[in-house]
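Field: COMPLEX_INPUT
Field: COMPONENT_COUNT = two
Field: RESIDUE_TOTAL = 263
Field: MODE = joint
Values follow.
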Amino acid sequence: MIPPAAFFVLAAVLFVLGVIAFFVKKDLLTQFMAVEIMLNAGNLAVLALSKASGKADGQALVLFVITVAAAEAVIGLAIIVLVFRQRKSIRTDDLKDLKG
Amino acid sequence: MALTIFVILSALCVGAVAAMIISRNQAYSALFLVLAFACLGGIFGLLDAPFAAVVQVLVYAGAIMVLFLFAIMMFNLRRPEPPERKRVRIVLGTALAVILLGELLLAARRALGTAGAVPPGRDIAHLGRLLFTDNLYAFEITSLLILAALVGALALAGKKEGE
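Field: COMPLEX_OUTPUT
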């Protein structure tokens, strides 16, 4: 029997690793992957809560989150491809003028 | 038994994400992430959510990360990332992240007071009924969203180079 707290700790660690990856990495693609890690950590927490509360609603929510994440990945990658075509680079250092 | 599997899977998952952060090559990062998401799929299975586990492996480890790999192939970045010069950014980011970890763990401890209910059970029929009754609107709107994402991605990135 795994204590529910273990899943929360794992979800928190994964989320924080995603945050670190987002800050440490300097190209759009890897930062986008970091966002996916954070989404997955959230999913894990929702599933852990779903099991702890004894309802299956959390599983349905996770399915929706995964579907929306897929749509978001498609659009995000399309935007990154556009940026690469305009600037010939996806390093955030080369995109500093985007900050306005 | 389940605890052993959980420990192995979570160690693999955290290790793969750490390797993804350390690796300088984007393709390796994406492959490490595939490993991490596959392990997460196993952990979802441990949480009595077999359908979520299958979807996680199929959609995340399969479809989304392959999409990332295709994008990496399109960018065709020959030179790997130069090593980081400014350490301040890494140190600050990590410090902020550690503070966030502390806060999350505090919040999790508070949320755990509700534990101890009956597990939801693993039957997929119940989940399907839930999806198509209580969440029917959300389900249909999601299908519209995916269609919009498909058309949007084509409109954004589908143009030829010369246009």
